[in-house]
Amino acid sequence: MSVEQIKQEVAKLGQEQLSRFSAWFDHFRSDAWDKQISSDAESGKFDAVFAEIDEELKRGEIRPL
Fold it and tell me: Global pTM?
């Protein structure tokens, strides 16, 4: 099924079905985001940023929330 076909089908949904679909899709996207962030963190993608933050904390340039 193409994205265009999905759009057409979603446009046909009634209000209650659209609300249920929206809630499901929000949850789906949230899970995908969580998995991506977790994967990026595990791969070391953020290591340089975390090291920079640690240094700024040590120098007193920033403080923890």
Answer: 0.67
**Spatial separation of the C-alpha atoms in residues 52 and 41, rounded to whole Å:** 15
Tokens linked to 9:
């089908």
Residue boundaries of the structural domains of the chain: 3-58
Residue with tokens 């899709």: 25
pLDDT in tens, 14-54: 999 999 999 999 999 999 999 999 999 999 999 999 999 99
| Residue 59, both tokens | 């120098």
Q: Which residues contact 64 (CB under 8 A, 6 or more apart)?
A: 57
Tokens of 5: 């076909």
Distance CA 39, CA 41 (A): 5
Local structure of 24: helix, strand or coil: helix
